[in-house]
Amino acid sequence: WVCHTPIRLRELIRTIRTARTQAEEREMIQKECAAIRSSFREEDNTYRCRNVAKLLYMHMLGYPAHFGQLECLKLIASQKFTDKRIGYLGAMLLLDERQDVHLLMTNCIKNDLNHSTQYVQGLALCTLGCMGSSEMCRDLAGEVEKLLKTSNSYLRKKAALCAVHVIRKVPELMEMFLPATKNLLSEKNHGVLHTSVVLLTEMCERSPDMLAHFRKLVPQLVRILKNLIMSGYSPEHDVSGISDPFLQVRILRLLRILGKGDDDSSEAMNDILAQVATNTETSKNVGNAILYETVLTIMDIKSESGLRVLAINILGRFLLNNDKNIRYVALTSLLKTVQTDHNAVQRHRSTIVDCLKDLDVSIKRRAMELSFALVNGNNIRGMMKELLYFLDSCDPEFKADCASGVFLAAEKYAPSKRWHIDTIMRVLTTAGSYVRDDSVPNLIQLITNSVEMHAYTVQRLYKALLDDISQQPLVQVASWCIGEYGDLLISGQCEEEEPIQVTEDEVLDVLEGLLVSNLSSPVTRGYSLTAIMKLSTRFSSVNRIKKVVSIYGSSIDVELQQRAVEYNALFKKYDHMRPALLERMPIMEKTASNGPTEIVQTNGEAEPSVVEPKHPPPVGQPASQVKNTVFGLVSRCLSLMAFYLFDLSKTVNFLSIGIPPMTAYNKNGLKIDFTFERANPNPNVAVITIHASNSTEADMTDFVFQAAVPKTFQLQLLSPSSNVVPALNQGTVTQVIRVLNQQKLRMRIKLTYIHKGSAVQDLAEVNNFPPQSWQ
Amino acid sequence: MDGWMDGWMDGWMDGWMGGWVDGLLLTIGITSSFQMQFMLLFSRQGKLRLQKWYVPLSDKEKKKITRELVQTVLARKPKMCSFLEWRDLKIVYKRYASLYFCCAIEDQDNELITLEIIHRYVELLDKYFGSVCELDIIFNFEKAYFILDEFLLGGEAQETSKKNVLKAIEQADLLQEDTKVSFSPSFLMVWSRNAAEVRDSCRGSEQADWV
């Protein structure tokens, strides 16, 4: 048995770095870990420090090091400074405040907080301030408070930040630090000043009473800031000609919090803010950092208008700065102030629009958001030109948002209906595949309501279809339009531009082409079949249409088949109703602000709907909203159809109203149902609500629902409504799950609860998700 | 049946989201409006050189965050700005030679001053090691931590004077030379050697290497 000296840390590092493969490295690590483990077992005091240090290195490489946790505690308890240093470092890296092991540190830390050497006290303060749990903070707050009052500035500054951490963990303890804050700001030491300001900031943010109490510090803070600016060169704190920028920024931030909503305080800081704003050197990042903070403060407090304009102008200058970081920050700030200081920001509109051409993605995004915020009735034409140009050339990740923004802006400020339609056309033809699905019904509504533009619109859309049938939103809107206004198309009635000559057959060729094309999505096919059907009351080629409809009666696409069957029925049994049913859509009232949400759920089709009386309204929507949907307006048809077509009952809904709920789990009296909605604004996110109910005679307590999904999905769980599932179905626990998915959804669930005194755990798979939840 | 089950289990275990999600911890979460949540140093190959976490997270979560963030930052092109939005945090990063310095700050925080914080830390490392390079951080990672812990505490700057931070490190280093910590501060004044001297005498030889 040869007892060898554990190898040195740097030797180990050197060795590990010679490994040429992951496997080789793993082997070295395993060997060393084994050696370290046996060394730990031997309770070797001499080399414990070295071994833990090596363990920390290996931990950084990603290898497990939990067997070193207790060793860290032993090192902390040692009298050697070297041991303590590594021990505390190890504790901060390996110990997790959620484990109980860290509580064993409390006593050591307490002793070290009272150590005779300030560097040991410093280690303890640092560790407590970095990772102290609530229990530790409670136990040691008194020690920290004591050190906050010491005259030793090395310790005082650390105690201040440690106090910040204590307050964050245990807000109720804030009061006990109040006396110690009394003369913190009279310190000359910058470290103490800086950390004191941080502490005061934390207290003011958390408590309105503290905030009110500390407002009296404003004059003192102003004085300190003034001294920093006016004082001569101080080598110790100088950064590119600016004296202690870190302290300046923190003071400005505290002033912001103190001045917010308070006239007197705001006035007291007005001058110093103006001074900083005008005198700070802007050639380097550090000066701009201070200016930035100053601007944020000016905008948040009750500053006089001159000061606000000064602030916005600083941001305007930032926009022209060569440094892209500064430009980014300017755009972010302007976005925050555009509502409150709209006119001031408008003055920088052209610079902002130029930022659309920036190479940086984040800058482009902000510039786009800001541009949309600046659009108004006066600048709509010019702005739209820029934004459409941007839409043409921007990255795909922007197109959807930009298109939506254009639609919104056009709707609000369109100078004319013709301009509006043209703008929509431009978006659909240039970015048609990126347009959100929920834009389709919105556009349809818009077109319907622009009565005098119908002929022009249908003509333009028809021509667009001749060019390109790949962009689904465009094709869907076009199909719908042709179905509605096909008669105008063939009659050559267009006033706005040269009317085209087109025959019924040509139009039907185009629509039938959509049905057979590989490029068309199932939804698009639905649109075109319906459009063809509608033309049966507008065109004379009814036989052709009848033939098409009957062919699709045996389509393998279930949706298409259903429609075709229904349309066939219309021809055969209910022909007298056909004209009324397929009549022009009336002008639709604007729905409430939730318009898109509802429409997303209904497949985006503006078709007459049949709401079977026994169908529940779409999940998550009150009944009144269903009534107000665009499609609900065709109510005169509804009752008629419901009456006459009830024998097609099972399938007569042209719309899918909601996604049906399902039972995900049902065992031992615990039943978990899932209900679904599509999230707004991202329709690819499925929002699932779980409803857990308990039919046994005893409550299920400590109920925890967990879920896991395959890697291709993303999952988010919000907090449950409670963790007791009451007995005898007296209530349910609900919890919301959000899944980002575009494929067949699979989920594994894990349930744990306590029932009649014993702990129950179960795992289950959920595979029976309805297809609509992931399509 | 057995074969099928096995295959499916593997599929789950392997490519699975990284843990059971139980609604109690969602993302990192905002602790207050201004706080640095963590700082990561990593190489251009994505190797972690230092990780300082100022919020409580499990090892698994830290690994996941690190992996994601490293990937995101390394994918950035040189012309892009030093800030990016990630989850509900702002990431401030800067590359110094072969090392990326990456900080996660909260929504209300000042990105520009965070760049200065990063720069100050680099300056401290540079002064301590004398023209610092990645190798210094690799071989002396514990010292990099010690320096960071004298500069920041709980994610905030505790000392704004470069000189004072370096002096404290120097004194603490000297304390390591002795077996027992029973010195009072006055005794330390007798030692006048500076840290650079001590370190230079160590470079190359291992005698004074204490770990």
From TrEMBL, chain A:
It is a peripheral membrane protein. It comes from the Eukaryota. It is found in: Cytoplasmic vesicle membrane; Endomembrane system; Golgi apparatus. GO terms for cellular component: AP-1 adaptor complex. One of its GO terms (biological process) is vesicle-mediated transport. The keyword Endoplasmic reticulum does not apply. Keywords: Cytoplasmic vesicle, Golgi apparatus, Membrane, Protein transport, Transport. Residues 657-770 form the GAE domain. Coiled coil: none annotated. Its main location: membrane. Residues 604-623 are annotated as: Disordered. Belongs to the adaptor complexes large subunit family. This is AP-1 complex subunit gamma. It comes from Oryzias sinensis.
TrEMBL record, chain B:
One of its GO terms (molecular function) is clathrin adaptor activity. The chain crosses the membrane at residues 20-42. It is a peripheral membrane protein. It is found in: Cytoplasmic vesicle membrane; Golgi apparatus; Membrane, Clathrin-coated pit. Residues 35-175 form the AP complex mu/sigma subunit domain. InterPro entries: AP1_sigma (IPR044733), AP_complex_ssu (IPR016635), AP_mu_sigma_su (IPR022775), Clathrin_sm-chain_CS (IPR000804), Longin-like_dom_sf (IPR011012). Gene3D superfamilies: 3.30.450.60. The keyword Ion transport does not apply. Pfam families: Clat_adaptor_s. Keywords: Coated pit, Cytoplasmic vesicle, Golgi apparatus, Membrane, Protein transport, Transmembrane, Transmembrane helix, Transport. CDD domains: AP1_sigma. One of its GO terms (biological process) is intracellular protein transport. One of its GO terms (cellular component) is AP-1 adaptor complex. Belongs to the adaptor complexes small subunit family. Subunit of clathrin-associated adaptor protein complex 1 that plays a role in protein sorting in the late-Golgi/trans-Golgi network (TGN) and/or endosomes. The AP complexes mediate both the recruitment of clathrin to membranes and the recognition of sorting signals within the cytosolic tails of transmembrane cargo molecules. Adaptor protein complex 1 (AP-1) is a heterotetramer composed of two large adaptins (gamma-type subunit AP1G1 and beta-type subunit AP1B1), a medium adaptin (mu-type subunit AP1M1 or AP1M2) and a small adaptin (sigma-type subunit AP1S1 or AP1S2 or AP1S3). Binds to MUC1. This is AP-1 complex subunit sigma-2. It comes from Oryzias sinensis (Chinese medaka).
